[in-house]
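Morning F.,

Quick status update on the modeling queue. The single chain you submitted on Monday has been processed. Sequence for confirmation:
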Amino acid sequence: MLDRRTFCGSVALAAALPSYARGRTTPAGGGFVFSYFRNADNGGAGMRLAISEDGYRYRAVRGGAPILVPMVGENRLMRDPCIARDPITGLYHMVWTTSWTGVTIGHAASRDLIRWSEQQAVPVMAAFPGTRNSWAPELVWDAQARHFVIVWASTVGEAGKEGDHRLYATTTRDFRRFAPTRLFYDPGFRVIDATFLERDGRMLMFVKDERKEPLRKVIQWCEVSLSPPRFGALSAPITPAWSEGPTAVMVNGEIVLFFDRYTEKHYDAVASRDGKTWRDVSDRIAMPAGANHGTIIPVGAARLRALAALG
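Structure tokens below.
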């Protein structure tokens, strides 16, 4: 089990990079892109995009039609799409859940978020016999090591109907060669749906406590160092029960955390300036109908205009 009690240092990202490459905060004149799927089709229809100028209200691109259709993986699904930009090459990389069960995740890359590379199924849990699933992969750039860290949830072995998920990880620079998968985060109970946000030289990890008895199903956060992995203590819950699929961005100097209220079939959001006091800002947001578990990233003005032109 990795130490989740003592946080050793902070993650200082490359100061030479523009602010929107260092964290999920919008560049001047730009906006935000939301990648998502719809549970109504189990993720089989593919990844969709929505855009926003203010970070709160998102409208679907291309009338809500899929931008990318799944072609790989055990069940050829495209659930939980996560997109992140490589600050060195400028490429956007996307990873996603390919199946409810199995050892693979999906990957594709794009320069414009519209045209995508050939898809690949990455067998991230192939070396772990008894793996039941590989869910909700998330990308985070490690500036110290100059590579991406991919984090996802898996249950290994028999663990009952709910599963006994822990977070696993690999690293890559080129999405062709991957470091051996390792256990990334084990707080002593089941966790899924990690997402990351860099703010003021500190890396934050938001994660879902997946326990049902006693009922949790809430989002919490902690500070994390990626090289090597070290974790601070988890915060108190910042969302109600039955929340999942968090994604965090900086909007006007505030952390805004969007999350999927999946039992109620809608999104909510909370905001904070210090990470300690959170307020409900759900009445300010608008998300595409039927959206589930996606990721919000900042983009520049040219990219926002190009996506808006798709209708």
